[in-house]
Amino acid sequence: MTMIVNGLTELKEQAGADLGASGWLEITQERIDQFADATNDHQWIHVDPVKAADGPFGRTVAHGYLTLSLVVPLFFELLDVKGVKMSINYGLNKVRFPAPVPAGSKIRLAAVLAEVEEVAPNGVQIVADLTVEVEGSGKPACIAQALYRHYA
Fold it and tell me: Cα–Cα distance between 67 and 89 in angstroms, integer?
């Protein structure tokens, strides 16, 4: 369920809030191949199902940066900030990829608003603790701390 906040004051009141988890998103081989084409990263563990079948994961896996890039749409399933002029992705404090995302698997995002603080001029910065889960896996695919800024 999406948390909707109206303006920076309401956003600041949500410091520490657990946003729950997004819906599941299937990671298809087609999506992996498209990411490989966009980034020119055609390593066989991502794009060669025949060779990858004999590799360390038993099949192709998503690029770590593909998994990370999907944080953006999944995060917007969890938090909708209304009443602001602009929102930006400000960066990352840390990122880890503890487990692979096999082709055909599903991921979802769990998030907590770890910090919410004012930034000049007329802005609020969110520090969000993010975990990308893989359906049926005991280890997360990605753990990250992302920064987003919203301006009035």
Answer: 16
Q: Is 111 helix (H, G, I), strand (E, B) or coil?
A: strand
pLDDT tens-digit readout, 16-30 = 999 999 999 999 999
| Residues composing the chain | 152
Classify the C-alpha dihedral 119-120-124-126 as positive or negative.
negative
- In the chain, the DSSP E strands lie at 3-6, 18-21, 25-26, 79-82, 86-96, 106-119, 123-134, 142-151
- Whether 130 contacts 111, CB under 8 Å: yes
Contacts of 9 (CB under 8 A, 6+ apart): none
pTM for this prediction? 0.94
Cα–Cα distance, 83 to 20 (Å, whole number) = 23
What burial class does residue 79 get, using C-beta atoms within 10 Å of its C-beta: 0-12 exposed, 13-18 middle, 19+ buried? buried
> What is the band of 1 on the pLDDT scale with cuts at 50, 70, 90?
confident
- Give the Cβ contact number of residue 61 at 10 Å: 24
Q: What is the 3-state secondary structure (H, E, C) of 72-99?
A: HHHHHHHEEEECCCEEEEEEEEEEECCC
